[in-house]
Amino acid sequence: MGDFVRARSSSQKEERMREIMNAAEKQFAEKPYHEITLTTIADQLSWSRANLYKYVTTKEEIFLELARDKWAAYLTALKAAFPPECGYSAEVAAEVWAGILNGNKEHLKYAAILSSIIETNVSMEKLAAFKKFFHQQVDLLTDLFHRNFGFSREKAYEIFMNVHYQAVGMYGYCNAGPQVTEALRRAGVKLLIPDFRERMKTFIYMNLNFALSEK
Q: What is the Cα–Cα distance from 192 to 173, expressed in whole angstroms?
């Protein structure tokens, strides 16, 4: 990368932030979160740490934006797959939803550390903006499922969040890191890793079918 030139316009600032996010995302694909620092990100960009500080204060600010992007991509795909009044049965809906989750696993990787790590070291202003966006999107999906399946908004919200947290946990179980894998090997423990998509399809179907049976 060439010499650092400070952004002046809003579009230039957005471009710089995207460069920062891309660098952090690349590192997160290659190493554990705790090994990523502002210094490693600055080094990858060929920036000084001082120049990086012109745009972010903590690495969590970067990962909050990445989590937002991944969440938005997942929900965009989900909304496209469940058009209003699609008329899916519980079985078809479970198949479609599990496929969307399987194709958007990246957002689960970020969601797994969102509340316990990322959200703990960002400004209140940035966190509030993220929470507003997050719950606005949840409300849209809740309303969509309410209209598509006919159960209450409360039940639609419950199912959506049940699936979300189950998927986060199942992703972590199916994608143990090298340190955990080695610890299990030394402990003589062999995990039977399930098929993520199939396990989520079963879970989603169970939730939808039960809710529909209560109508």
A: 10
Question: What pLDDT sits at residue 197?
Answer: 97
pLDDT at res. 191: 82
d(CA 11, CA 17): 10
> Which positions ≥6 away from 46 have C-beta within 8 Å?
1, 2, 4
pLDDT of 116: 95
Residue with token string 């340190």? 179
Task: Output the pLDDT for position 1.
Answer: 46
Q: What is the dihedral angle through the alpha carbons of 165, 106, 144, 118, rounded to the nearest 10 degrees?
A: 60
- Tell me if 166 sits within 8 A of 203, measured CB to CB: yes
Evaluate the CA torsion angle 209, 85, 94, 133 in order and state its sign: negative
Q: What are phi and psi of 74, to 5 degrees?
A: -60, -45
Three-class secondary structure assignment of the chain: CCCCCCCCCHHHHHHHHHHHHHHHHHHHHHCCHHHCCHHHHHHHHCCCHHHHCCCCCCHHHHHHHHHHHHHHHHHHHHHHHCCCCCCCCHHHHHHHHHHHHHHCCHHHHHHCCCCCCHHHHCCHHHHHHHHHHHHHHHHHHHHHHHHHHCCCHHHHHHHHHHHHHHHHHHHHHHCCCHHHHHHHHHHCCCCCCCCHHHHHHHHHHHHHHHHHHCC
Q: What residues of the chain score a pLDDT lower than 70? A: 1-8, 215
